[in-house]
Amino acid sequence: MDGLRQRFERLLEQRNLATEALGALEAKTGVDKRYLAAGATTLLSLYLLFGYGASLLCNLIGFVYPAYASIKAIESPSKEDDTVWLTYWVVYSLFGLAEFFSDLLLSWFPFYYVGKCAFLLFCMIPGPWNGARMLYRRVVRQLFLKHHEAVDSVMRDLSGRALDVAAGITRDAFIPLSSS
């Protein structure tokens, strides 16, 4: 339990948007930022359990901060942070695709949105326990290396067909225009 408390306090010592907001709230209210963070986490968890619009809130959690961090990573000179957030978006998109096909069933399960948010936060965690990096290395990369040639072949074929269809539509649209 002490290890979790120490990690929580180290997380609150990092300099980012959330800790700056907590610091400002601490200065205005006089309430320790550890209690503010714990209270916000508790309220968020309760809302995800019982609140209306938990799906929207969960999707915002999984999108807003990663999008902001991705923009910062793009603007930074380091490529390492780009890889971290690119990996997150690959895992996020695969999760979103899987969720699309299973959402009607899964959304009826109690605590689904709490679990989804926990998963998305797990994928965002900085450092060696980053869930997106772990899932990418253990699952996504293995599948990619095994199947990428077949997928590339299908994509080339579909791309060629799409270009042929687009050329046909363009040609069919210009023929009546040129004869008038």
Based on the model shown, name its key terms.
mainly alpha, 86% helix, 180 residues, elongated, single chain
Q: How would you sum up this structure, described in words?
A:
Helix content is 86%, strand content 0%. The protein is built from 7 helices and no strands. The protein has helices at residues 2-13, 17-29, 33-50, 54-75, 80-106, 112-124, 131-179. The longest helix is centred in the last third of the chain and has 49 residues, at 131-179. The model has no long low-confidence stretch (mean pLDDT 86).
Query: Based on DSSP secondary structure assignment, what is the total number of beta strands?
Result: 0
Shape descriptor reads elongated
- Average predicted confidence as pLDDT: 86
Distance between the termini: 80 Å
How would you sum up the major sheet? none
* Proportion in β-strands: under 5%
**Rg measurement, Å:** 23 Å
Give the fraction of residues assigned to helices: over 70%
Could you state the order of secondary-structure elements as H and E? Answer: HHHHHHH
Q: Unreliable stretches, pLDDT < 50, 5 or more residues?
A: none
Supply the helix-strand structural class. Answer: mainly alpha
